[in-house]
Amino acid sequence: MYTTKQFWLSILIVAIIFSGLGFFIASINKPTDNQNTFQAGWEAAKQRLEKTGMITTIEGMGITTVSGEIKQFQDNKINLKINPLEPLADPELDNRIVLVDDSTKIYQLVGKNQEQYQKEVEEFGKKMAKQTENPEEIIEPIESPEPFTKKVLSLDDIKIGQRITVIAQEDIKEVKQFKAIEIIVEFIPGSTEELPL
To answer: Which of 40, 79, 85, 159 could form a disulfide with 71 if both were Cys (CB 3.0 to 4.6 A apart)?
Structure first.
């Protein structure tokens, strides 16, 4: 029969043997530096998630619009905390610097009067029905009515904490700093005009 000392001694010997065996096997199967990088693992995880459909990527697509919250606005530079473009996008690109000047168009979306909007929807429906009945008479494309109008603002109307949508001329998917050609302010604190729900 084992004594307590013999029991603990045999446990210690088994642990040493298996630890040594583990180190020996690990040294034989040691991966190369290229196989054992964080980036390689990250890319493999992204590919795996894409294959399962759990995330979608916008690779190969140009992005000219981002939305987010103004964190700082000084010297015609807006520090914008954006909503990530992809779940696994580079976190450094969550903060963008948006350059603005006098040529940047700035708007706020203002909801139309419900009666006016309903009238535009009915008119649109009539035009669509007419074109469907006579497709050979299509003269110009019909634009669907928008439930809002754009109210022109100035740089002075931009405030820290506002949520904005920024439009650029070039692809800004991987760009930290870019020039805005248009900014749409989602809400102006203290404004009596609010967007429709």
So the answer is: 79
Using DSSP's 3-state secondary structure scheme, residue 106 falls into strand
Q: How far apart are CA 164 and CA 152, in angstroms?
A: 14
> What predicted TM-score, i.e. pTM, was given to this entire model?
0.60
Residues, the chain, total?
197
Cβ-contact 179, 170 below 8 angstroms: no
Q: What is the DSSP string of 108-136?
A: EEEEPPHHHHHHHHHHHHHHHHHHHH-GG
Instruction: Give the pair of three-digit tokens for residue 94.
Output: 């969550």
Strand 65-74 to 77-82 pairing: antiparallel
Name the burial class of residue 74, with classes exposed (0-12), middle (13-18) and buried (19+) by CB atoms within 10 angstroms of its CB.
exposed
Q: pLDDT tens digits for 140-174?
A: 777 888 888 889 999 888 899 999 999 999 999 88
3-state helix, strand, coil in the chain (%, to 5): 35, 25, 40
- Model pLDDT for residues 49-69, shown as the tens digit of each residue: 666 665 555 555 678 999 999
Looking only at the bridges linking them, the beta strands covering 177-185 and 65-74 are: unpaired
Which tokens hold the place of 185? 């302010």
